[in-house]
TrEMBL record:
Residue ranges occupied by any Pyrroline-5-carboxylate reductase catalytic N-terminal domain in the UniProt entry: 4-96
InterPro entries membership: 6-PGluconate_DH-like_C_sf, NAD(P)-bd_dom_sf, P5C_Rdtase_cat_N, Pyrroline-COOH_reductase
Pfam families: F420_oxidored
Species this protein is from: Nocardioides conyzicola
Protein name in UniProt: Pyrroline-5-carboxylate reductase
Family of the protein in this entry: Belongs to the pyrroline-5-carboxylate reductase family.
Top-rank taxon: Bacteria
Length: 256
């Protein structure tokens, strides 16, 4: 069975390791880099097929597929100091490290791919965008809920930009809850009400072929309050700001 080595064991690597191994009968062998010592030790302590290497080169030496979860600032430099083999593959989660540069620093690794994993990989419940695809990366994310192969690098970067909208989504919910608590609903109750409302609605997103226009229409009676609020946000330029913000994130990603 394919063995996996993780370099950089932070929050996203931990989610992937849990998805690969926790409660899985045919869990693969997993080797972790030692930095982020507490998290690596915790994972190795409770998952029988997971162990911690003595250094990053030990991870590369032990793995068929090396999964890179380093921070963007020094990922390329850290990888360039390691020796890869031609018979291994590399999957990177590092934002902004483009395929050409990544391939250069992990040469002669034969299959190299980028990915945008999200925390839901921990429950094998997330389809992960990958570029440009390949047997190793698709087998890896197949264990974590599946992959969405994107051949064009700018299209892939655009998906990465779209994944930067999560904090703003929670900010929006927070604004609604804060408005409620400013009108006399105690904060915890206001937040619980908003959380319950949107948790229940999220089920509708699980249906195949989610159509956001149709969902918006289904939740707005003509002449009603939902229709008014959505129109007011549009008039205030909120949706234009979403598009402009995404353009700015994409520009930052592609600037490297
Ligand atoms: N979090 C997410 O949801 C997502 C993250 N990503 C990408 O994944 C990467 C990691 O993100 P995230 O997990 O959030 O980051 P974290 O800050 O949680 O973890 C980074 C880890 O890398 C370790 N590290 C730093 N330098 C080295 C090194 N030279 N060798 C080995 N380990 C090292 C750190 O160890 P120490 O603590 O000892 O410094 C830390 O444990 C980023 O590039 C990010 O863009 C992509 C998609 C989603």
């Amino acid at each position: 069975m394919t063995s996996y080595g993780f370099i950089g064991v932070g929050s996203i690597a931990a989610a992937m390791v849990v998805g690969l191994c926790d409660g899985v009968t045919d869990a693969p062998e997993v080797v972790l880099s030692p930095r982020g010592a507490e998290r690596s030790a915790e994972l190795a302590g409770r998952l029988p097929t997971v162990r911690v290497a003595t250094d990053n080169q030990g991870v590369v030496d032990a793995a068929d597929v090396v999964v890179v979860c380093l921070l963007p600032g020094d990922a390329a430099e850290s990888l360039a100091g390691l020796t890869f083999r031609a018979d291994q593959s590399v999957v990177s989660a590092v934002a902004g490290l483009d395929l050409a540069h990544l391939s250069e620093v992990v040469a002669p690794a034969r299959e190299v791919a980028r990915s945008v994993p999200l925390p839901a990989v921990a429950s094998r419940d997330s389809v992960t965008p990958v570029h440009p695809g390949g047997a190793a990366v698709e087998e890896f994310f197949g264990r974590l809920g599946g992959s969405l192969v994107i051949q064009d690098e700018l299209a892939y970067e655009s998906v990465a930009a779209a994944s930067a909208t999560v904090a703003a989504y929670f900010g929006y919910l927070g604004a609604v809850a804060d408005w409620l608590s400013g009108r006399g609903i105690p904060g915890p109750e206001a937040r619980r009400y908003v959380a319950n409302t949107f948790a229940a609605l999220s089920v509708e997103l699980g249906a195949p072929g989610a159509d956001f226009t149709a969902l918006a229409q289904a939740h707005s009676t003509p002449g009603g309050l939902n229709e008014q609020f959505a129109r007011d946000l549009g008039t205030a330029g909120v949706y234009d700001a979403v598009r402009d913000g995404l353009d700015a994130v994409l520009a930052r990603i592609t600037a490297g």
